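Annex B. Sample input.
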Amino acid sequence: MTGVPGLFVANLVIALILLFQRVGDRPLTRAIHAGLFLAVAGMALGYLMGFQGRQSTTDASGRAVELAARHSVGVTDENPGLPVTNWSTSGGDLRIPHFVGLHGLQVMLIGALVMSVLASRIPWLRSEGTRASLMAVLALAYTGLLAVLTWQAFRGQPLIHPDALTLAALGGLLAATALGVQAVRSRAETGQQAPA
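Annex B, continued. Sample output.
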C-alpha cells in the first residue's frame, strides 16, 4: 500500500497508538490526541473529492484529459480561485476543509504552547487541569469549524461568500466556544479563591 492510502493508514495507526500514550503534561497530551484526530479527519475528507464526479480539462499540450475526481462542488474545477490557494470563488471547494483538518495538529500544538507561555502571566491559566480543559474547548471549536467548512463546501458555497445560514452556524460556534472558555475560566477562578 503506497501513496495517499499508505500515508492515511500510517497516520491512523500512529493516532491510535498515541491515543493510549501520555506525552508530556495533560494539555500537551490532549493537544496531540485532538490534533491527530483532526489531521486524520482532514486526510479522510480528501477522499470525498473522488466522489464529486468526473471532469474534463486540458493538459499543457492542449489535449483533452478526463479526470476521475474533482474538488469543486456545484462548479467545474477550472473556475476562478483565490490567490495563492486557488480555492474556488464561485462554488464549494472540498480542499478547504481538507486543508483545515490536515493542519489541526499544528493548531492544537500552538494552542498548548500559547497557553503554557501565558500561564506565567495569567493566574487562572496556571493549573494544568485548566489548560487541559481549554484544550478540549479549542479542539471542539476547531472540530466545529471543520464541520461548518465541510457543510459549506458540500452546499456549493464559496468560502468568501457565506450565506446567512453559514454565518449563523459560525456565530453559534463562536458563542459556544466563548461560553466554554468562560465556564473553564469561572471554574478556575473559583478554585483559586477557595480556601486551601
